[in-house]
Specification:
This protein is an alpha/beta fold and 446 residues long. It has 3 domains: 204 residues; 96 residues, Translation factors (Elongation Factor Tu (Ef-tu), domain 3, Beta Barrel); 121 residues, Rossmann fold (3-Layer(aba) Sandwich). It is built from 13 helices and 11 strands. The strands form 2 sheets. It has a 6-stranded antiparallel beta sheet with strand order 4-3-6-1-2-5. Strands 9-8-7-10-11 form a 5-stranded parallel beta sheet, with helices on both faces. A hairpin with a 2-residue loop joins strand 1 and strand 2. The structure holds flavin-adenine dinucleotide. The site of flavin-adenine dinucleotide (FAD) has 25 residues, from helix 8, strand 4 and strand 5.
């Protein structure tokens, strides 16, 4: 079992800068190729035509480098998770896809421009160019499907298709690069490209190996309960080698009871040392809200597989502030509960406030836990906000301002809930003098 501790903010910044520098260096090296090792097609060009073609090739090479980076971003590599967190990596993955498409389209335009339309229709000998054009079209289609996937496909089906198609596109891209330009026939560009491809393949193999080492199988589900309306609590026995930080999540799959063998991310709502030091079980609360989660029932006798832990949504990822404010919306309480539970075991715990907004009373599924925590943590202030029904109210700037009136400026805020709620609260907190760098949030989508 591989476990990797959270890194300090300074180390995260250093590693982050180092990796960005590495990508920039590779992009820089790729950009020199059309100038230092020009292909024979450039020999016959002069003036602006030559420059346009060279710049077009630079765009294409940058798109190719970023395409390989794109594959690395979704490897669930624990080292990357400890630096950025998987949620941020999947955000980079989305942004990077648009950047690659923009670079690839510009590349196509710029390499066609100096040629004009004289060579049309192009002959068979230009098959590498045709492969390139097909790549750009497939990429645009691929991104469009990813954008609308929620409406088009179930997540699991989409993921099963997305991955192999991504690898296939990478192979086609390599064929395109090696054949479209004779710059890659010999010498430094060819050697450099092989080294780059080798490094990417090795990183993928390392990610697969580490993921396998981070996976625990055949774990018994020792307790299950219907924790509230539409929420199931499952307790899973884990070996003592499994360690996690409060607030982290894991990928869970369940076997038995007719449940589909899919893997889904869930925050661990138990805490490493609560109620006893190094507890031998962990707990999840699962909202029965979708195709897969609706099939989960509070059964025991199931077996679970677990890959993790992942995530940086933990007060352990940074120095303790004088006060921590946890703001949860609905099922978003789970990582916050883990942090509050762990803090209740710590001597030097800071002051704590929990603001939990739920639609109805029946959504409030943790009354016993909260009463117990309150008795262990006299300095915990809990506010439950009901947003639905008559008299329901949302958390807006005014109500937050009233709740937070004694909360010091240098406090830390941990928010988890529906995306619109989190973005509103982030905005309100910044309006209310709190710094962006002291506000942390967890999205329940990757
Ligand atoms: C870091 C993190 C922590 C989470 N913690 C909790 C928690 O403690 N309790 C809880 O109830 N929910 C939690 N979720 C949400 C939970 O993962 C989804 O509700 C669940 O996967 C939905 O699956 P479904 O097939 O039932 O629903 P669907 O309606 O099929 O999916 C709804 C959405 O969930 C996401 N999703 C679905 N399947 C997967 C998958 N296999 N992998 C990744 N994302 C997927 C997709 O964005 C999808 O659009 C968490 C999510 C993340 C990312």
């Amino acid at each position: 079992m591989v476990t990797m501790r959270l890194l300090s903010p300074t180390r995260r910044t250093i590693f982050s800068f180092a990796s960005i520098l590495l990508v920039v260096a590779v992009l820089g090296c790729a950009a020199t190729i059309p100038f230092v090792w020009p292909s024979t097609s450039l020999w016959y060009k002069t003036g602006s035509d030559k420059l346009v073609l060279q710049i077009g090739k630079v765009f294409g090479l940058c798109a190719a480098v970023l395409f390989f980076v794109q594959i690395l971003l979704v490897q669930r590599l624990v080292i990357f998770d400890r630096i950025w967190g998987l949620d941020r990596l999947s955000f980079f993955h989305r942004i990077n896809s648009f950047l690659i498409l923009a670079l690839a389209i510009t590349h196509s335009g710029l390499v066609i421009l100096p040629e004009g339309l004289d060579n049309l229709p192009i002959g068979r000998e230009f098959w590498p160019e045709m492969v390139g054009a097909a790549l750009v079209i497939t990429l645009a289609f691929f991104i469009a499907v990813a954008l609308y996937r929620r409406r088009l496909l179930a997540y699991d089906v989409w993921r099963k298709v997305h991955r192999p198609v991504g690898y296939l596109l990478a192979v086609v891209l390599i064929i395109h690069i090696f054949n479209v330009s004779d710059s890659f026939e010999t010498g430094v560009p060819r050697g450099g490209l092989w080294v780059f491809i080798g490094a990417i393949v090795l990183t993928i193999i390392l990610a697969k190996y580490l993921t396998a080492r981070m996976t625990l199988k055949q774990l018994p589900v020792s307790a299950g309960r219907q924790a509230g309306e539409g929420v199931v609590g499952l307790r899973i026995e884990v070996p003592s080698s499994f360690s996690y930080a409060p607030g982290q999540f894991a990928f869970l799959s369940l076997h038995g009871g007719g449940i589909a063998p899919e893997t889904h991310p869930f925050s661990i709502s138990s805490a490493p040392d609560f109620p006893t030091k190094r507890s031998s079980s962990i707990e999840f609360f699962i909202k029965q809200c979708g195709d897969w989660t609706s099939t989960i029932t509070p059964e025991t006798g199931l077996q679970a597989s677990l890959t993790g832990p992942f995530g940086l949504f933990s007060y352990k990822a940074r120095p303790l502030p004088p006060m921590i404010v946890c703001i949860g919306g609905g099922i978003g309480i789970t990582p916050l509960l883990s942090m509050i539970r762990q803090l209740s075991t710590e001597q030097d715990a800071p002051k704590l406030m929990l603001v939990w907004s739920v639609t109805r009373k029946s959504d409030m599924f943790l009354s016993e836990e909260l009463t117990e925590l309150q008795s262990r943590l006299p300095f915990l202030h809990t506010h439950i906000i009901y947003t639905g029904g008559e008299g329901g109210r949302r958390l807006h700037e005014e109500s937050l301002s009233a709740l937070l009136k004694d909360v010091p400026d240098n406090s830390h805020f941990y928010i988890c809930g529906p995306e619109p709620m989190m973005s509103d609260i982030r905005g309100h907190l910044q309006q209310l003098r709190y710094l962006r760098k002291s506000i942390f949030w967890e999205r329940f989508s990757l």
